[in-house]
Amino acid sequence: MAELLAAEGLFAGYGDSIVLEGVSLALGEGGSLALLGRNGVGKTTLLLTLMGLTRLWRGRLVLKGQDITQVPTFRRARAGLGWAPQERLMFPSLTVEEHLKAVARPGPWDLARTYRMFPALDERKRHRGNQLSGGEQQMLAIARALMTNPSLLLLDEPMEGLAPVIVEGVIRVIDQLVRSGDLGVIIVEQHARLALSLTQDAIVLNRGRVTHRGASASLLEDAAILERLLAVT
After folding, report:
1. For 181-211, what is each residue's pLDDT tens digit?
2. Are the CB atoms for 64 and 95 separated by under 8 Å?
């Protein structure tokens, strides 16, 4: 499996505050990774660092063999990083379809395929961003990221605040994306067992450092180790 992403010794944060301390990870093409840890340990900061939205003090980022350490965010998106942020970041005045068309780039993910994956968005394609439910906004955030035709999809808390029936739909979508092997997926998710069930590998963060890395299945099978890792203070 060819390497898709390599992050080497990342020290990053906001202003003068360093949140990540020497974080490294690697992901192969079509691979999937769960980022686990308690609130405030640096999971979202790591995704933001991959997107170029934090202050990087030290470290190196390579995507598909290209050094993107100093590359601005919009060029990282063009290089193949797709991001569905925790806040969803809807444009209130744009319709669902306008959200999707605004970011569309050539590739297998077009409007037709996206609507097949998210039929609810097809039904609501003329509704504006501020007319959507939380679940519909989450689906749109993921669909919008896919319309950039990424090689790596970053999902930040995709289940947060959603009703159980909506969560089931989002899980099905993520599972299909991971199983397809067409793109890499990194998931930040508070529900550890759910994230592990959807991914091949996992990293646990604590206080900005990697405290565990390994196969998701192994961690899922050992409840005692999982509880201990997530309870570290």
Report:
1. 999 999 999 889 999 999 999 999 999 999 9
2. no
**C-alpha–C-alpha distance, residues 31 and 15, integer Å:** 32
Q: What is the pTM of this model?
A: 0.94
201-206 and 209-215: which strand pairing?
Answer: antiparallel
DSSP state of 208: T
Helix axes 134-146, 96-103, angle to 10 degrees: 20
CATH of domain 3-230: 3.40.50.300
**Reduced 3-state DSSP string for 210-229:** EEEEEEHHHHHHCHHHHHHH
What are the tens digits of pLDDT across the range 82-127? 999 988 888 889 999 999 999 999 999 999 999 999 999 999 999 9
Are the beta carbons of 78 and 105 closer than 8 angstroms? yes
Rounded to whole angstroms, how far apart are CA atoms 220 and 233? Answer: 21
- What residue ranges do the domains of the chain occupy? 3-230
